[in-house]
Structures are given as C-alpha cells and as structure tokens.
C-alpha cells in the first residue's frame, strides 16, 4: 500500500531536486549520484516523529531483487535520520528502481549476512569502505524486499 500523507522534501535542495526529477522522469533522469555515473534508487519512508512522507536517494545495491540500504551518512558519527524512520516502521517503505515504486519491508542484517551485503555495497560504491574507516560507529545495513 503506497505511503500517503504530507510529503516534506529534504532540506538539502540537491536531494529534493534529484528525487523530484527521478520521479518525474520515471527513473530515466537523476538516476545516478551526481556526476559519478553510479546508480541510485529513491526510497520513501514515513518520519518516525513527524509522520510526514520523506524521500531520498541511496546508492543502488541490489541482489536477487533485494536492496541494501546502507546508513553511512558519509561516515558521520551519527546515523542518518532515515535509518530511524525505517527501523521505527520497516513496513512504511517504498523503493523506486526505475519507472514504478513498490512497497517494501526492511530488516537490519548482522553477522555473516551483513558481511555479505557489505561486500556488495562496497563493490557498488567503494567510498562506503572509507566511510566505515572514518567513523567509530558500525554502519548499519538494512535489506529491503518487496512486501508480500
């Protein structure tokens, strides 16, 4: 079931603009991280405190129809806000990888499974390894799949 409610765009204008262009074009434009050529997906969540719909782009790390959501925040000392939104309600989630968004459910992975997804993430976006070295926190990885 699609997320409904008041949409509050990111306060970072480049993020809000990328999401808008990605959605407007059905994923044919604004589908890479700035000028890197590396693909992104658009993730929609509900704010844990505000209840508002939030959207942002994340690096595309896909394997067998599942997606890694890497809470790196560029190696900052704290988790990104979206991490708290997803973990507060892992079923209030949509992913858009191309023309149509789909409902998804997420779970945080640990141990061997996290290591496997981390390798995939670093292969897709090598700076993730630098981000982990830069911070003392362990960067969480969530895995999202289509909702049943």
Summarize the structure.
This protein has four helices and seven strands. A seven-stranded antiparallel sheet has the order 2-1-5-6-7-4-3, sandwiched between helices.
Helix content: 25-40%
Strand segment tally: 7
Question: What's the oligomerization state?
Answer: single chain
Strand count, sense and barrel status of the largest sheet are:
7 strands, antiparallel
Can you tell me the number of structural domains? 1
- What is the 3D form? globular
CATH architecture type: Roll
Strand content: 25-35%
Strand order of the largest sheet: 2-1-5-6-7-4-3
Any idea of the CATH class?
Mainly Beta
Structural class by SSE content: alpha+beta
Description of the molecule:
The chain has a single domain, classed as Electron Transport, Fmn-binding Protein, Chain A (Pnp Oxidase, Chain A, Roll). Helix content is 28%, strand content 26%. It has helices at residues 13-24, 81-88, 111-124, 127-134, and strands at 40-46, 53-59, 62-63, 66-70, 93-96, 101-108, 141-146. The protein has a 7-stranded antiparallel sheet with strand order 2-1-5-6-7-4-3, with helices on both faces. The longest helix is centred in the last third of the chain and has 14 residues, at 111-124.
């Amino acid at each position: 079931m699609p997320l409904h409610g008041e949409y509050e765009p990111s306060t970072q204008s480049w993020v809000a603009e990328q999401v808008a262009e990605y959605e407007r074009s059905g994923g044919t434009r604004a589908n890479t991280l700035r000028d890197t050529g590396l693909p992104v997906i658009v993730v929609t969540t509900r704010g844990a405190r505000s209840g508002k719909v939030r959207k942002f782009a994340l690096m595309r790390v896909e394997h067998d129809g599942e997606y890694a959501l890497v809470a790196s925040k560029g190696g900052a000392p704290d988790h990104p806000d979206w991490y708290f939104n997803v973990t507060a309600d892992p079923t209030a989630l949509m992913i858009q990888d191309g023309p149509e968004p789909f409902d998804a459910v997420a779970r945080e992975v640990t141990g061997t499974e996290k290591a496997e997804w981390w390798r995939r993430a670093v292969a897709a976006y090598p700076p993730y390894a630098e981000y982990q070295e830069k911070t003392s926190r362990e960067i969480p990885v969530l895995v999202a799949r289509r909702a049943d």
